[in-house]
């Protein structure tokens, strides 16, 4: 997955903790082997290179996951869509970056559209309808690996655990002993601006600051808007908390594409997921969040990023976010 894995496990015995941590690593490696779009040996690679027009049967675990990803693209109105592969190619996102010609972009948009690859959740089959179409697992793969690794920890009865897979977290524990974690400033990544106390949930953040391509001096993020074919505008970051790591991962990507206004309204309509938007405009940081997010925030909303807040100007509070 091109990223780091950090595991902390607390258990009643050293051997038990070590074994549980080792199993997390093995499970993440197993998902990487299954989902990698870089490795020509992966099962995902077989899906992505299957003959155009013929049904392909991935193993049931992968088939279920692809159907799940498909569901997130439907509910997000296409803001999240793993079928972005052709657009990743058009912008050379995995190389040094290139601005596609209008012609290339039109073709890529077709090859990345909702009809370019069909996933049938009943039969578990995948059909590619365009030779340039492929599914990018980058928007939900970390969540999938985390979810499975977390299930392993539950079964191992460890007391507390924290997994950090490239910035997406899974926190296992109880309300009396939550994990304290921080959300970084969207552009000054070393600066924590929000603290959360979490247990039994995953936290995923999507933003443009860490990975980007630069074309003619303009930075373009690695998250694409599948509806327009354009890289998403750099506006800040969004952090999603959910008991389901796949949901946290996919929804964070979706909300980033939607942007802070549309994204907040959308997130408020979803059950069981909480979102925090950190927006940077002219160097000013503003935060907004769904009401449910407050159960995880350690500081009262008013004190969020106080150094950026002028007295009496409460754009940060939940109550006034509609007036922004
Ligand atoms: P990260 O993996 O860097 O934490 P995300 O979870 O937001 O960030 O996923 C971004 C990755 O998802 C991109 O690198 C790309 O592989 C893929 N991707 C880009 N745009 C979309 C999109 N609109 N929907 C689904 N996947 C996307
Ligand atoms: Mg994601």
Using the coordinates shown, work out and report the CATH topology of the largest domain.
T-fold
Fraction of residues in β-strands: 15-25%
- Number of distinct beta strands: 15
Radius of gyration: 20 Å
- Poorly predicted runs of 5 or more residues: 305-324
- Which ligands does the model contain, each kind named once? adenosine-5'-diphosphate, magnesium ion
- Gap between N and C termini, in Å? 37 Å
Number of helices: 8
CATH architecture of the largest domain: Roll
Question: How are strands sequenced across the largest beta sheet?
Answer: 1-4-5-8-13-14-15
Name of the CATH superfamily of the largest domain: ApbE-like domains
Provide the domain count.
3
Quick gist of this model?
This protein is an alpha+beta fold and 324 residues long. The protein is built from eight helices and 15 strands.
């Amino acid at each position: 997955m091109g990223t780091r894995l950090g595991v902390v496990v607390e258990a009643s015995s050293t051997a038990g903790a070590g074994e549980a941590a080792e199993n997390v690593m093995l499970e993440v490696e197993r998902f990487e082997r299954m989902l990698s779009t870089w490795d020509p040996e992966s099962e995902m690679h077989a899906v992505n290179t299957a003959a155009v027009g013929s049904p392909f049967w991935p193993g049931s675990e992968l088939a279920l996951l692809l159907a799940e990803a498909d569901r997130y693209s439907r509910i997000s109105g296409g803001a999240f869509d793993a079928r972005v592969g052709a657009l990743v190619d058009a912008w050379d996102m995995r190389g040094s970056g290139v601005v596609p010609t209008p012609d290339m972009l039109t073709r890529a948009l077709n090859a990345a559209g909702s009809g370019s690859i069909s996933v049938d959740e009943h039969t578990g089959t995948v059909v590619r309808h365009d030779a340039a179409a492929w599914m990018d697992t980058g928007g939900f793969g970390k969540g999938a690996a985390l979810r499975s690794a977390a299930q392993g920890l539950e079964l191992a009865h460890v007391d507390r655990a924290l997994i950090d897979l490239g910035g997406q977290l899974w926190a296992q524990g109880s309300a009396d002993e939550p994990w304290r974690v921080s959300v970084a400033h969207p552009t000054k990544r070393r600066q924590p601006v929000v603290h959360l106390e979490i247990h039994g949930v995953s936290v995923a953040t999507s933003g443009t600051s860490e990975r980007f391509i630069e074309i003619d001096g303009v930075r373009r993020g690695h998250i694409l808007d599948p509806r327009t074919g354009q890289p998403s505008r750099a506006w800040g970051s969004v952090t999603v908390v959910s008991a389901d790591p796949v949901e946290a991962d996919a929804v964070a990507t979706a909300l980033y594409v939607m942007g802070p206004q549309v994204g907040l309204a959308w997130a408020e309509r979803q059950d069981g997921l909480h979102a925090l938007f950190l927006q940077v405009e002219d160097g000013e940081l503003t935060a907004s969040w769904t009401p449910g997010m407050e159960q995880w925030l350690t500081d009262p909303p008013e004190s969020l990023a106080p150094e950026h807040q002028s007295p009496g100007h409460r754009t940060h509070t939940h109550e006034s976010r509609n007036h922004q």
